[in-house]
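worker-03 picked up job from queue 'complexes'. Input manifest follows; four sequence lines, order preserved.
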Amino acid sequence: MLQAPPQTAPTDRLTVGVAARLSRYLQVLTQAKKMGKARISSQEISDYTNINATQIRRDLSAFGKFGKRGVGYNIDSLLGEIRKILRTQGQHNILLVGAGRLGEAIVSSPIFAEHGIHIAAIVDTDPEKVGRHVGDIGVSDYGELGDLVRDKNIIVGVLAVPATSAQQAAEDLVDSGVKIIFNYSEALLDVPSDVAVHTSNPAVDLLYALYFHLT
Amino acid sequence: MLQAPPQTAPTDRLTVGVAARLSRYLQVLTQAKKMGKARISSQEISDYTNINATQIRRDLSAFGKFGKRGVGYNIDSLLGEIRKILRTQGQHNILLVGAGRLGEAIVSSPIFAEHGIHIAAIVDTDPEKVGRHVGDIGVSDYGELGDLVRDKNIIVGVLAVPATSAQQAAEDLVDSGVKIIFNYSEALLDVPSDVAVHTSNPAVDLLYALYFHLT
DNA sequence: TAGATTGTTAATCGATTAACAATC
DNA sequence: TAGATTGTTAATCGATTAACAATC
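worker-03 finished. Artifact:
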């Protein structure tokens, strides 16, 4: 069987599955590093992600030989390699809509900063909340949403608002030019087809986890 | 439920993928019903979930002919069918560890109640928080965790605590007999192999969404 | 060396997609 | 009827897994 050229170009666009898995490896490596580990094996990553260890080695070896046989992967260098593959080296500015309990919980999480995601602005409609600080960031009036998106070079809008306000907020983000929306509300959003909506729904995950472990 | 079993046996255990997708359909249907809709097409479900419409029809038709050609699916009846398939009709009791901002946000979300998941108890180590109410539920002292798990028939523990406390809380849940842990912290948890850990990590999803829409 | 773990192959299984007849 | 959408098939693609030589 005639084979294609030995090194097929891995610089092509990743599949959704590969990008999702690489992101999870990144998170495990970040945490393992914080715990003081210097090396990690594919089996350890598998234990934390429930992704098959062979699949992990396969994913990584498609981009290079990052591991050492008999030893495992160096956490620092693997972090760098995956960041290169995902091109998430730069800073990404996001705007948070909603300074309630969920919004506060999101801002206070170290996860975003660890991955180069910068919460550049927070807006809320409640006059009581405008001017207050959540973490390091002052809460702006909701009416400034459009200006903030332009001035702060916002590329992602994160919705941490009640379901009843989510559609309106999504429309205002879209009108300001935001093309990626992260929806933490339970609402279904109608947006133009060139806008990507990711709805993050922990309760849905829980439901399916229940199915699996109760039967 | 006097229905004769179809020829192929769909009473077998579902695959992980099917169970996860059915859970997402359930969430979309629940929301669409709240919005006053009575019917929905596979294409509409596809728009909200980013799951291919053919895949949705295929998933559903494996369990019966729930739709009407030219019309779509009746939301109420499809909700009932999927709940039957996932066997999530009953009440499931969960215990929440941590009454901070994230814990409060979780309790105040209507999603859990909508899917028959009952937050039966909340514990926290902070004496300031013990005795207070979060939503309808009083906060108990962390030391009562074991008793609460037994008395309230808890099957799932939800961790909404800082990463530094997560491992200890996981161990205490495991010692009390809990076999399903939902981890909203960024910590990596080491638990016995018969305990299932689901880590829900919005920032990781965001990271991979960024890869897809920035390139 | 002896043990451990990667990198890789090959086989299988499930997901995805286009297409379209059936039928509401 | 005419338009819409399901249910289903068939082809293809990606994920999963076991196995194991290479090699640290």
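worker-03 released lock.
The domain at 16-86 of chain A is CATH 1.10.10.10 (Arc Repressor Mutant, subunit A).
Residues 34 and 197 of chain A are 31 Å apart (CA to CA).
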